[in-house]
Design brief:
By secondary structure, this protein is α+β, with helices and mostly antiparallel strands. The protein is built from eleven helices and four strands; from the N terminus they run E-H-E-H-H-E-E-H-H-H-H-H-H-H-H. The structure holds glutathione (GSH). It comes from Lepraria finkii.
Amino acid sequence: MSQPIILYSHKAGPNPWKVAIILEELGIKYETKFLEFPAGVKGKEFTAKNPNGRVPAIDDPNTGITLWESGAIIEYLVDRYDTSAKLTYTSSPEKYYIKQWLMFQMSGQGPYFGQASWFKNYHSEKLPSAIERYANEIKRVTTVLNNALEGKEYLVGDKCTYADLSFVTWGVMVPLLTGEQHEINFDEYPNYKAWMERLNARPAVKKVLEDKQKAMSG
Ligand SMILES: N[C@@H](CCC(=O)N[C@@H](CS)C(=O)NCC(=O)O)C(=O)O
């Protein structure tokens, strides 16, 4: 690979940073272009790339592909650049289990955690029943992961895969999504807590979370 991938991102949103973790883990060269919200993300230039007007999206000048939806981008990066299967398995059933967990992240974690954030932080009215519903969904998703991790360090097989990594950037935001009233005591989810600590200790994850902090305070 000769040219850097362009990652279209937003400083605060967790989804582009999820892709950054995979880029860092695989040592892929990339440049981040931060878009303002709403002007950049909803503007004509970006919606020509992503008609959904949301980040992330990537341009890969090495293959000519432009892609959006973080899960699809992650699968592309692993297919194209993870030639030693560092973050994946090529064997069955493991490769399908990885996809299963990525789908769960994309459909079960991302949207529900996103709605929790919306109703707690941005909605024009305070709707306690909506705040409670999504706080309970965070607990439900956390319980699913905690149960799946019983006796295991990672979701699939015995190594960290892109499935595990896909849960990090929303996972670290939980305290901002629940508030004190629905605060989650992670001691009640010991497998989940140890897994998150394991993932957060990885150099690539640390770097991306630090980059996000810097971007947000810059
Ligand atoms: N399913 C999409 C969700 C993308 C998404 O919602 N991104 C947020 C930033 S984290 C965004 O662009 N929000 C702008 C908006 O809500 O209009 C993905 O995973 O790529």
